[in-house]
Fold these 3 entries.
Entry 1:
Amino acid sequence: MKRLYSATNGIATLEVIECDCGYHMGIDASYVEQVDDAFFGKTICPSCKEEIPVRAILGMEPIEVDMEVSRECVAFNTVTVVANSEEEARRKALDKAGDYVFSEKDANYEVTDNCWHAVP
């Protein structure tokens, strides 16, 4: 993917980008100059559906953003209960588990889709 050229008519400036598939896309340069987080989200080529890194191609400065991250972990502990059946023991253990401290050994992190905003 590459930047081909800029075209201007005195009113607007158009940046022309060529995708690897050969598709040409025009970007309104005045929009890019006025909006700090312009093209930070996904820009997809209509022809091949590949993501186009518009900000990098146009040489725009990186911006600071807040990203929403979810944390998923698994931790184990032994919870002692008094019960007459396995089903009752499971129910009581789940009820009582909130009173115990769990030490987690590992966690997975994932960025939540489409949850970002520019830092003011």
Note: The helical segments are 29-34, 54-57, 86-96.
Entry 2:
Amino acid sequence: MAVQGNRGFRNKRPKRGLIQFTEWKQEAINQLIQDDELTKLLAYNTKDWKSKPSLTEEERYNLVDKHIYSYRYVDEIAEEKQSYISMSLNYFAPQEGYRQFSEKFVMGYFYFYIMVDRGVRHTPFGDRADLITARVYDIFQESRLFGIGELEMKTQGEIWLDKGMYGGYHLGFQIIEFK
């Protein structure tokens, strides 16, 4: 009689930590496409984006893999002027507090990358990259979407790509989760 060991029991543990990356990204995309102002900023590259009609549910879902990516890399920069949001999960490690590492918790970052073509950045309502960044911050800051507790923005910086044709920001929200 063969002994099967722990096989079959592994999946009985609750989903925690790194196992949830795909679910967290899917939830982030759902949150992004539900925001009316954000979806207009992404879909309408004109200065009058605010007065344009709200996107239908189908149009919102069509933003995925065209303007919103579940990974950092944007497949190809479009010939027409566009705005993009991509994301990544990074630097997950045992949580450290007062130089002691936790046996039960991990801490890491959920990064959002906002990239906007220079040709569509200026709007009467402000810089499009700033406006998109503000919407992403508003959606996720202090939310309880991922991990335990509230998300907290811990890092932000400016980014430029494609020889300066695309610029924007990255936002890093700290996540604490069970191992």
Note: The chain has one domain: 14-178.
Entry 3:
Amino acid sequence: MLITITKKPGPTGMGTGTDAGGSRWKVAQQCLYKYYNKYERNGTGITKGTGSNWKAVRGSAVHESLCWLYNVLNGQLPPGLPEGVYPETFDTSNTKHIGMIFEISLAMGMQVIKNSTFEPEFEEDLKKQLAITIDRYMEHYQDELFNPKDDGLKVEQTEIYIESDILHKRYTARLDLIGKYGDVPIIGDHKTTGMHWSIYQKGLKRDLSLMGYVYNARKKYNIPYQMLINGIHFKSTKVFDVDFQRDLITYSDYHMEEFEKSLGKIHSDIDCCKENNEWPQNGESCMSHMVECEYYGLCNNPETEFSYEAKPSL
């Protein structure tokens, strides 16, 4: 397959949508006090108080590398590359050219690591894990990437922002990719996790964020999109290993109506909290799959001004 670079360099770095489809409201669904601390307090939210940040950085770096892998395959290079180093046409039957595509996508993920704040002792492991992940991803899906057929994933665009009004509130959803999986039009979402995939995938069908992505895209383009989960499963952090899993989640019109109703209830709850100046804490969300909420150390420590027990002035 020949790939001619015809598109101008695109933006670098992962952006953040206002509501990212439904993730802002999913936080309110989990715990209204967490929502208050993250989105309402002083208008800007607060710094997370606990938990390891390096795994989040790893996820962001993988997202960025995959974004640029597919961008290059669609004929777009990132800005800032040295002139004359990369060809104007990539030949995917040429192993040297495939190595260059790997080099470009890896460099964009490395830039995320460089620009992020996390525990410094994890830096070298992060870089190694990113390189292994992208290398194995390209090997695992090599036929689909470099000799595409009709039954695989075909990426049309990456990092798409969609703005829409839902229930009189403005949404900005950031989609990882839009394309087709076989003949099914899909929104693609890269999911990185260390959790066993059979456990992780159970909650995805009703995930408010995923439903929000599909809802926004259908509303914007009038195309019956479904959701493709492009899963990257980190099986171990000590002896690093990674595998890949994809799941196609289908939504009917009923699911989209259900999303609207769920969103309406969450909006009502938030409006009620604002009116009464009370933001209830949901203790059941403090731990999820044996992992602390990132705000646990703040709102459960009575010595901090953000403690729920300390009842700060809201």
Note: The chain has a mean pLDDT of 84.
